Amino acid sequence: MGRTLAEKVWDDHVVRRAPGEPDLLYIDLHLVHEVTSPQAFDGLRATERPVRRPDLTLATEDHNVPTIDILAPIADPISKAQVDALRRNCAEFGVPVYSLGDVEQGIVHVVGPQLGLTQPGMTVVCGDSHTSTHGAFGALAFGIGTSEVEHVLATQTLPLKPFKTMAITVEGELPAGVTAKDVILAVIARIGTGGGQGYVLEYRGSAIRGLSIEGRMTLCNMSIEAGARAGMVAPDEITFAYLKGRPHAPQGAEWDAAEAYWRTLPTDNDASFDAEVVIDASTLSPFVTWGTNPGQGLPLDAVVPSPDDARDEVDRVAIERALEYMDLTPGTPLRDIPVDTVFVGSCTNGRIEDLRAAAQVLSGRQVAGTVRMLVVPGSVRVKQQAEAEGLDKVFIEAGAEWREAGCSMCLAMNPDKLAPGERSASTSNRNFEGRQGPGGRTHLVSPAVAAATAVTGHLSAPADLAAASS
Amino acid sequence: MEKFVVHTGTAVPLRRSNVDTDQIIPAEYLKRITRHGFEDGLFSAWRKDPEFVLNRPEYSGASILVAGPDFGTGSSREHAVWALQDYGFAVVLSSRFADIFRGNSGKGGLLTAQVDQDVIEAVWSAIEADPALAVTVDLDRREVRAGEIVAAFDVDDYVRWRLMEGLDDIGITLQYAADIDAFEAERPQWKPTTTPVT
Ligand code: SF4
Prior knowledge:
The complex is a heterodimer of chains A (about 475) and B (about 200).
Chain A: H1 5-11, E1 14-16, E2 23-26, E3 29-33, H2 38-47, E4 57-60, H3 77-93, E5 97-98, H4 108-114, E6 123-126, E7 140-143, H5 146-155, E8 157-160, E9 164-171, H6 180-191, E10 199-204, H7 206-209, H8 213-221, E11 230-232, H9 237-243, H10 252-262, E12 275-280, E13 287-289, E14 297-299, H11 313-326, E15 341-344, H12 346-349, H13 352-362, E16 372-375, H14 380-388, H15 391-398, E17 401-402, E18 423-426, E19 441-444, H16 447-456, H17 462-469
Helix pairs in contact in A: 2-5, 6-8, 13-15, 13-16
Chain B: E1 6-9, E2 11-14, H1 21-24, H2 44-47, E3 64-67, H3 79-87, E4 91-94, H4 99-108, E5 111-114, H5 117-129, E6 135-138, E7 143-146, E8 149-152, H6 157-165, H7 169-174, H8 177-186
Parallel strand pairs in B: 2-3, 3-4, 4-5
Antiparallel strand pairs in B: 1-6, 6-7, 7-8
Iron/sulfur cluster binds next to helix 12 of chain A.
């Protein structure tokens, strides 16, 4: 009987297996950031345990960091305390850290892949739920809690119970203007925020094969929003081409050995999944969320739903509450929803292709006078690349703010926040109540939709602009 | 970690589904670098409403939270577990928990007991009728008892064992250091390290 991609990666990392106990799994790469690590390092200190493999551990500063004046001392005392604690802990325990001002600094899930640290068949963890991003390379990558961070620091392993596997097969060609973000929002709307619970999702099918690595990262990133532990895409030529020549990718004979192994990883033809979902790519269109969880999304052509559309009582209450929080009226066309803020960035959509997509829409156009638009690259490298391509000028000329790298308004732990009652179109991954600032309202969108929305001032797709100007 | 075998206390009904970790504890509280004292952040947005159930005097001192389905979705922050514990909760009952939250709870010593939604509804009715009703969560027998209600709950075997023994994870794993050494000796050379390349 064949095995799935996830099962192969799992099997190759079992350090110890005993009946009735979780498998002890080896961790190839442990990423660390300032928010979920201080208590873990505290725990090590209290028990006088060292970091077992600092050379498989990498820290970046991302969640709290300001995106302007980055070399001035951090104004918020608590943010500063976290960042300072990370620097101290990394120095004390010998962990490499990319701090503000370093050319490799950025969002942890952007930095790992761009350095070539994330490779097929690896196990990758981080005290951050969007670690699922790294699954785009065919790695088994998942978020862990702070006590697990401490566990991995101390032992480089984690005791884990096997996950179930779910195939999400997207066959056919994506219609023009439909991006990886639209695909994943449609998947979550389809299976629900609990639909992936207990599963590793493997994205398959011709539409997925056609996505770039960056698109696959967007897809895998939001697997967690469907409740899944991880998302994966089998490695292929696109993966290898992305990795080749990256700073931490293998070279020469080691590359050949690695590639030979990577080619054994894709799911066997006779393997079976515990669950399967099939989506016809041709039915997809730009997708936006209207509610307060990422499963509350609809095609942009739709209207705000009514509690009467609910599947059951629980869903009805959820819709009512979301409509109230979002201040929306059932039946309103989604296109008529005005926004005052547009955020392009985050580990979901803060990579170079995302910035290119947004810039392409904005080029020669203006951000509406009623809209504040923030463009925050996912890493310093992404920022430099964008500037080399002149994208920064496109954004600035259109009236957007061009910022330094970090998580920024994705979770509003730094000064970039929505004010109460403000409404954003955001390329991030969470539209929870207050996520982008207390009382703020979030509509999740793709970078292209974000840019088009910035131009019109209400939720829009690029095609709407073309139609308007012709 | 203290051993958890049987817990008896009063319970508070949280009639909401999809309670995500941003609601349990908003991101602003994550900035702290300590491990305790998160009770002020628990459900802090909702607690601004004087009518919110946790603000009602009849439910003060409750140690069991009875929540709607899909409790603990969203971010992996373990602070959600700490905040619930710091506030005084020893058990959360729900018909469905998000995986990461549930894993974090097991490690932190917070019991997430999964029961059918009709049990949740029954317990909600019972504790709304009588907020002082004693609710017992018996980990040994995997059973919730509240007045007339007796219902089995689901808990992972391994988590149950650890909670009942009060065992810490890292100590368990370090007993297998020789296995980890052996695994590392076999790891392929080409696997990357994070040592900066110049
Ligand atoms: S960009 Fe947002 S989702 Fe991604 S790591 Fe940062 S805070 Fe988390």
